[in-house]
Amino acid sequence: VAFPVCVSVNDVICNHSPLASEEVDPLKAGDIVKLDLGCHIDGYISVAAHTLVVPESKGDQPKDVDPKLGDCAVAAYNAMLVAAASIKAGNKNDAVTEIVNKVADSYGVNTISSVRMHQMKRFVIDGVKEVALKDPTPEELEAGEEKVSECTFEQAEVYAVDVAMSTGDGKPRPGVLRTTVFKRNVETQYRLKMKNSRYVLSEVDKKYPTLPFTLAVFEEERTAKMGITECVTHGLLTPYPVLHEAKDSLVAHFKCTVLLLPSGTTRVTGLELPEYFKTEKKPDEDVEKMLAEIAAAAAKKAKKKAAKKKKKKSSS
Questions:
Q1: Percent of the chain whose predicted confidence (pLDDT) is above 70
Q2: Based on the number of CB atoms within 10 Å of its own CB, is 227 exposed (0-12), middle (13-18) or buried (19 or more)?
C-alpha cells in the first residue's frame, strides 16, 4: 500500500479512512463518495481517485443526480485530463495551474485550494516538484500559505495528477472526523518520552518508513491512538487531516498517475467518468480542442488494442 484507502462522503473532500472501532453513518442512495488509494511494487508508486454516487440498489444507476454535481464532476474530470496532457517534458507547472482554473471557471465551480499534484519517485509519494490547483491569494499568503515554486517537467518523471473541485468556496476546513492517516517525517529525530509513542514510532520505522499509513494497521488501536499524539507534536509524523468543504457543498475528486515517456505522456491509472454525470456547460475553445484530441487518441489506442487482441485470438 502506498496510500491507505480513503472513503470521503458528501462534503468531506479527502483523507477519511475510518477505523473499525469508529461508528460511521451507513452509505445511502444519493451520497457522493470519493475513493482514494495508492499502491506500489518495490517502491514504484501509482495512485488513483474516483467519484461516484450511491444508487438505490446494487447494479442500478443513480437517479436524479443534481445538475450542479454534474457540472462539478465533469469539470474535475476534464481538468484532470487536460492537466495530465499538459504535464509533459519542457512544460512548466504554472501552465497546468492556469488551464485547471480555466476549466473550473468554464463550469462555474471552484478548485480546492489545498490540493496539489506531486511528482512521485521510488518510495516517495510527494516529491519536490508540485502543481497547485490555484495560486494562493495575498490574504492566504499572509496567513502562512506557501506559493508553489516554479518547476519544469522532465522526461522519465512520474506525477500524481490530483484534482478536486466543489460548488462551495474551495476553501477546506477541519471537521469532527478523526485524522487516521500519517506519514513518517524521515528528516526529524526526537527521543520520545512515552512508551506508547516509542512503540508506534518503532512499528512505523520498521513497516512504513517513507509512505503514508493508517492507524488501522496497528493491532493495539488504543495504544496507537495514545502514542501517535506525541509523535505528531514533535514532528516525527506528518498528519493527513480529513478536509471538509462548507456544509451542503458538492465535491468531486479525480486522480490519475502519468508517466513522462519518450513517446509522450501516458496515463496509467484512473477510470472513465460515470455516464450519469452530465452538464450543459461547455469549456472554452482551447480546452474543448484539447479534450477532443485526448478522446481521439484514446479511441485510436483502444482500436489498436482491440485489433491486437483479435489477431492474437485468431492465431491461437
A1: 100
A2: buried
